[in-house]
Design a protein that fits this description.
four-stranded antiparallel beta sheet, 53% helix, 5 domains, mainly alpha, single chain, 682 residues
Length: 682
């Protein structure tokens, strides 16, 4: 409502003052639960309402501030106002809801905020030999472990004693000096690994009954909480799904109170939409929890089988098992945190929709009459949806029942209503060019590819009934067919509604946007944000309509990418530049203080390849004569009697012939004078 040339700072101050004044007036009237967000929403709804005299495209005048504040206060202080209840629910869900990945990120951030300061103090501590400083550092290690694993309070004496004993078995105080000598990154990595090993030891001690009393049994706790959330979401979903259809039916039959029935229908459908999101998240989480519980129990069995009653086990065998056990427990802790976020959101929304209970009590007779004629309403269309939701809930609870001490069951299936008669769409009759944003095309079940996976626009509400004045939120029947227009998919409740929408698609969409301005809670329910600009902090109206005046240009285009654009075997240190490789080689060689020399040898100089060819040897035989020979005696003599006495007693010398004969041995003794032989031995 402030023009483009208006002072943005002044606009923001005016908006803040208006919202502040509205909140103060509501608090004085006894409505202390009105927040700035709700007050701002009420101001914007007053500006957008076509029945008011405000123009959201003109600057806000000073005389308009008073009536605007009064109208917003009147809307906020209305007793049992269904639009305010719906707006509170929408603002609460948008502000509080977190998916599992977002909740996991929030959990990790909060956990680091707990132990980050202690870990930084440990990492920054310099090596010391003072006994007091070593004891203080060791106590910090114990505190960091407890704050990281969230397995007991750091103030409990038994928890501290148990954790200290487990830590001493892994890192004795005498080895603390080695730890402090590591680099910063190594210290952080060692701290994380130490906490996992110590947590695994404490979990094992709890399993064998030797400690861990302060550690919660997350297997049973998380499984029970998940099954309980699935059951609560399904029961409320089935109840409010039927309530929304009955409110739409009562709106058709009770024209006098059609406005109240419309507000109740919007509230019920919005709560149903949010319950569907929570139910789907809870069912997906049930699969994760069942997997984590089975993994945790398996790791416990592995540790028990490895250790058993042994007095000593190699650390290389048992430490990895402790780490895996602690990791499975940490996964369950993340699931428990996500459950806490979703359960808190469910309780808050359940408190907001209490106005529906009072409304149902006031109009009990009309609702009973609508339930009696359920064969004519849209409940038959929701049979498949409710049956599928019931089957998913039962399957999720059955998977979790293996890990819970008490059982949770859903015994009451959703009631079956009569299916309305289905007449498929006439594809040729729907395919027209009457829209300014492109042609219309009918998609039929069983014919269109991926029909069941198509997401309907407007939250699954019939496009034609939502364009009526006042709008009627009837469920679309996908068994009839889907109408595609302006790259969006619209559901219809009947073939007549499809024909009416095809005759004037732009008019239907414009009427839906007009209804959304009269009932701003429809913007969130029907997901009309593509047709509206986002909320602007410096704009009092907050929502400005987009007005496409001409058909956007379209063209056929295509692109082709590689089969595997991201290779898995990437070498991070690879460099294609030859000069860069040379530079790295020179840097590696470090030739500044080196000397180049070489040696030449004969073998290296005359080394060459050579080859020789020869004939293979032949095998020849020859015959020769017989070889014979003769042998002659070799003369041999011995002189005897050269020694002995002299004179008369002297014996005469003799020569003994020792020549060996050919035929025998012959010894001849001769004198030195050459006399005859004295004896012969043969």
């Amino acid at each position: 409502m402030f023009g483009q040339g208006a002072n943005q700072g002044r606009a923001a101050l005016v908006i803040q003052s208006i919202v502040k004044e509205v909140v103060e007036a509501c608090v004085e009237a006894g409505y202390s639960d009105v927040t700035d967000e709700v007050a701002a929403w009420a101001v914007k709804s007053v500006v957008l309402d076509p029945k008011t005299a405000f123009n959201d495209e003109m600057d806000l005048r000073k005389e308009d501030v008073g009536p605007l504040i009064d109208a917003a206060i009147m809307k906020l202080t209305s007793k049992n106002s269904m639009p305010i209840s719906t707006a509170k629910m929408q603002l609460m869900f948008q502000r509080t809801y977190n998916s599992f990945d977002e909740a996991k990120k929030m959990f990790l951030n909060r956990r680091y905020a707990r132990f980050g300061e202690v870990q930084t103090s440990i990492v920054n501590t310099s090596p010391t030999s003072v006994q007091g400083e070593i004891e203080e550092l060791y106590s910090k290690l114990v505190s960091s472990n407890l704050l990281r694993t969230n397995m007991g309070s750091p103030q409990e004496f038994n928890v501290i004693r148990e954790t200290t004993a487990a830590l001493e078995s892994v890192l004795p105080p005498i080895e603390l000096g080695v730890f402090m000598g590591l680099s910063r990154n190594d210290k952080e990595r060692q701290l994380e690994e130490l906490s996992m090993i110590v947590a695994g030891i404490r979990l094992f001690n709890k399993a064998i009954g030797k400690g861990g009393k302060e550690i919660p049994n997350l297997v049973d706790v998380v499984a029970m909480r998940t099954a309980g959330l699935v059951k609560l979401c399904y029961e409320d979903l089935a109840k409010f799904c039927e309530l929304a259809e009955m409110c739409s039916l009562c709106q058709l039959n009770d024209e006098e109170n059609s406005h109240e029935w419309l507000e109740a229908s919007i509230n019920a459908r919005q709560y149903e939409t949010y319950l569907t999101i929570l139910h789907n998240d809870a069912v997906e989480l049930a699969d994760k929890v069942a997997s984590f519980c089975a993994k945790f129990q398996k790791r416990q069995a592995d540790v028990h089988n490895t250790i058993q009653s042994k007095t000593a086990v190699p650390t290389g065998d048992v430490y990895p098992l402790f780490i895996e056990l602690a990791d499975a427990y940490a996964s369950l802790d993340i699931c428990n945190f996500s459950l806490g976020v979703w359960v808190q959101l469910y309780n808050q929304m359940a408190g907001v929709v209490q106005g529906q209970v009072a409304f149902m009590q006031d109009h009990a007779s009309s609702l009973k009459q609508a339930a009696a004629s359920s064969s004519t309403n849209g409940m038959g269309i929701r049979n498949d949806y409710l049956q599928t939701t019931f089957a998913q809930s039962q399957q999720a609870i059955a998977a979790l029942s293996k890990f819970t001490q008490s059982s949770i069951t859903i015994d009451t299936p959703p009631p079956l209503h009569d299916q309305p008669e289905v007449t498929p769409l006439d594809a040729d009759g729907i395919a027209t060019d009457k829209g300014t944003r492109g042609p219309l095309r009918a998609l039929l079940p069983g014919v269109a590819h991926g029909y069941d996976a198509i997401q309907l626009h407007l939250g699954g509400v019939c496009v034609f009934s939502a364009s009526m004045n006042p709008p009627i939120l009837q469920s679309a029947n996908s068994n009839i067919g889907i109408v595609q227009y302006d790259e969006k998919y619209y559901g219809v409740s009947s073939t007549t509604a499809a024909v009416n929408f095809a005759s004037d698609p732009d008019g239907c969409i414009d009427r839906i946007l007009h209804n959304a301005k009269a009932h701003p809670e429809l913007i969130e329910l029907l997901q009309l944000y593509p047709f509206f600009e986002s909320y602007d902090a410096n704009s009092l109206s907050g929502i400005q309509m987009q007005k496409p005046t001409r058909k956007p240009h379209k063209c056929d285009g295509g692109s082709q990418t590689e089969t595997h654009p991201i290779e898995s075997n990437i070498v991070p240190h690879y460099d294609h530049s030859e000069w860069e490789l040379r530079r790295k080689a020179l840097h590696l060689a470090n030739l500044r203080q080196k000397k180049t020399h070489s040696v030449q040898t004969d073998r290296s100089n005359y080394k060459r390849d050579s080859s020789t060819q020869v004939y293979l040897p032949k095998n020849n035989n020859t015959q020769t004569r017989r070889s014979t020979g003769t042998n002659v005696p070799k003369p041999s003599t011995y002189m005897r009697g050269l020694r002995g006495p002299r004179g008369r007693k002297a014996e005469p010398s003799e020569v003994v012939d020792l020549t060996t004969g050919i035929g025998g041995i012959s010894l001849t003794i001769r004198g030195l004078t050459g006399g005859p032989n004295k004896s012969t031995i043969k």
